[in-house]
Here is the input.
Amino acid sequence: MSNQLIECVPNFSEGNDMSVIKQITSQVETVDGVKLLDVDPGQATNRTVVTFVGPPEAVIEAAVRAVKKASELIDMSKHTGAHPRFGATDVCPLVPVSNITMEETVEYARKLARRIGEELSITVYCYENAAFCEERRNLAYVRSGEYEALKDKLRKPEWKPDFGPAEFNARSGATAVGARDFLVAYNINLNTTSTRRANAIAFDVREKGRVKTVDGIPTGKAMLDENGERAWSPGSLKCVKGIGWFIEEYGIAQISMNLTNISVTPVHIAFDEVCKKAADRGVRVTGSELVGLIPLNAMLDAGKYFLKKQKRSIGISDKEIIKIAVKSLGLDDLYPFKPEEKIIEYALANKSGKLLGDMSLIDFVEETASESPAPGGGSISASVGAMGAALGTMVANLSSHKRGWDERWEEFSDWAEKGKAYHDELLRLVDEDTDAFNKIMQAFGMPKGTSAEKAERNQAIQAATKCAIEVPFTVMEQALGTMEVLKAMAQIGNPNSVSDAGVGALCARTAVMGAFLNVKINATDLKDRKFVDDILAKGLEIERKAIELEHQILEIVNGKM
Here is the structure.
């Protein structure tokens, strides 16, 4: 599985003194694996919103360091600003980005809250999904009365904090730590200059909708509900906030939206719905723009959505899927859309060390041929397996576009998507095999002077060796899995490409047998013989199945030529 990523968006009660802000954000940058994405100070609010992303434990550490520095530099007894606030670090929400659930994010948020409370002696309340009671889910309730009311609130039993002291700290105040869904700020461009028309479309789609009027005329008298409050007619999209405005820089009106839960209303659904509502009012959507960053999966989901509408295979490269998303959403309407800057996972990518998977074919071959022992047979086996899976994927994609087979596009798209999943994983294993070898070398380089050092070194060597067995074994499993796709494509795929399925089978079998050689040679150095016996037995069975499937596929292929 890919690494888990969470986003942290702390709001610090300082928006004017850039030296203070820089000292706080510099703490974030001291933690390996965390990337500072945005620093947005506001003078009127006297508040700075900071955004950083990384693996959960690293993000928590970065947040603790930043909160600590803020408590040292910001004196809340002297703070004024237009925005509600009650602490030097006012709020500190965590947001799941990729490969992590909200439930897991909640646990990390509470861990962060505990560390802030216990290590920094700051009063902490948990809010939104991290709240321990329903009424504290609402940030406005937790922050009611703001900093000025905090001293009196802390005297009341019902306001006992979730973590940290129940005593008023005049300098730091209190901090709200939460877990919330990823918010996407998203603007949709219109072929009009009318703010009124843009607002009308925004009211059509946003969850809150528009105020009901007695006579049904937008400018008419507001209808009241049973409580004497204004009654609202909801819009068509859940978890969406929106208004219309005019952008002088571009000379157009836009629908400005906050998508507060993209698992409920993703970007592509919001875009299509605005297109429909705009058309109903004689307005055309010309494109859109993302403000800030977006998770990779959200872009891939958008690209796949539009590909499916075109009845095209979705088993293509992420790069091509993203290209379809950008063109379909018109994300390059106002200025070029740069995936490496706008997609969180790409912005986080470490470019300092070149991955084998990022090399050209020539560079990869020449690197393999060099005097360095890695990449070696394990990485080559994974790359050969990836080539085999790619061939199966290619046959599926060609079959989905074959003239006369239009009604079968989805069938072949499913096979292409399955093949793509295999070759993506095998490509990842190309580098993981080399990493496993490097870990063994690092373990052998550990000090061995004292008995404790020797024991630690031996333990590290055994752990690294076990990893060096498990990685090529995973290559075997993945390469064998590709043969299901290759056999299906040999049987039912485009007959003009049947030889490609055959070559793919040869690659898959080579990957299995090559990876097994790496399993066996590394297994000789592992002391856990039960683990070795079990994995060798499983490896033999995978090898047997791969050879058998290769024969079956080649028989089908030769029978069709």
In short: The mean pLDDT is 92. The CA atoms of residues 198 and 244 lie 4 Å apart. The first helix runs from residue 18 to 28.
